Amino acid sequence: MDLKTVTVLGAGTMGHGIAQVSAMAGLDVRLYDIQESFVDAGLTKLCANLDKGVARGKVDAELAEASKGRVSGTADLKTACVDSDLVIEAVPEKLELKQQLFAQAESFAPYAIYATNTSSLSIAKIALGVTAPERVIGLHFFNPVHIMKLLEIVVHDETDPAVLEACQAYGAALGKECITVRDFPGFATSRLGVCLGMEAIRMVEQGVASAEDIDTAMVLGYRHPIGPLKLSDLVGIDVRMHIGEYLAEELDNPAFRPPELMKQMVAEGRLGKKAGRGFYEYE
User: Fold this and answer.
1) Which residues of 44-81 are buried (b: 16+ CB within 10 A; e: fewer)?
2) Which of 114, 140, 232, 281 has CB atoms 3.0–4.6 Å from 152's, for a disulfide?
3) Does residue 153 form part of some domain?
4) Which ranges of the chain have pLDDT less than 70?
5) HEC string for 154-180
């Protein structure tokens, strides 16, 4: 399977990041969202990331301009999907939403590979939204997409080996280190990361130590590049709370159950970096 055209459904934080790295790899990219204003915002952030990379000497100026030229945006799903080789959804973690979106997209691109960026939901259940579940796979990117090197590829029992091979080649073209895991709640990364994050929040709740000191302990003591609480801020406290609730039920494991402090923060709008405050304050 030769992947030349990529459609990204959802122009938010993850979506525009996936679009950026795909364009930088030389692929033609279509960025879709339900409103033109959302598409425009995603394209603006994508271009700003490239410009920042050029300013810092991380991205070649010619590559940045060429990458911008390979990305188009639209609020029309048919325009986004027709003749696409790979359709990647990066929409909120709601199973029915992902199923419905793939079902609609498949009517315009019946032979595409359908990849979900979900961090925890069942790939097999998401695949129920299409007529050919063997073409559905998980491509779990990490934020910020243009910096993080890992791509977690998730296969369910019906995933076609040729689809896996094509996605591994796609990941390699993006410069990602790919790991392949089975379709199991939380996969490899979310299952471990969310469990650690929940325990860190419980420690803050119990007054064991400050958020800053807990993060410092993991960065300096365990060589984590970022502490679990700052990472929760980056991902979104609300996003992690919903993942924790899902994993607690699916795995029947109370370690994933969101602490009361987390629920309180979400209720107060302290959602992390995107809201300007979480465990830390942001400008």
Assistant:
1) ebbbebbeebbeeeebeeeebeebbebbbbbbebeebb
2) 140
3) yes
4) none
5) EECCCCCHHHHHHHHHHHHHCCCEEEE
Give me the CATH number covering residue 73.
Answer: 3.40.50.720
Query: Which structure tokens are listed for 93?
Result: 């973690």
Rounded Cα gap, residues 45 and 61, in angstroms: 17
| Nearest alpha carbon to residue 201 among 148, 102, 114, 279 | 279
How many domains does the chain fold into?
A: 2
| Residue 119 located in a structural domain | yes
Give 144-201 pLDDT, tens digit per residue: 899 999 999 999 999 999 999 999 999 999 999 999 999 999 999 999 999 999 999 9
Dig out the tokens for 47 from the structure. 């271009």
Rounded Cα–Cα distance for residues 118 and 36 (Å)? 24
The confidence score (pLDDT) of residue 283 equals: 83
pLDDT, residue 27, reads 98
Measured distance between the N- and C-terminal CA atoms of the chain, rounded to whole angstroms:
45
Both 133 and 93 in a single domain?
yes
Contacts of 37 (CB under 8 A, 6+ apart): none
What is d(CA 19, CA 88) in angstroms, rounded to the nearest whole number?
A: 9
Collapse the DSSP code of 210 into the 3-class scheme (helix H, G, I; strand E, B; otherwise coil) and give the result: coil
* Rounded (5°) CA angle 9-4-8: 5
Q: Are residue 18 and residue 156 in the same domain, yes or no? A: yes
Chain center to CA of 94: 13
* Confidence at residue 202, expressed as pLDDT on a 0 to 100 scale: 98
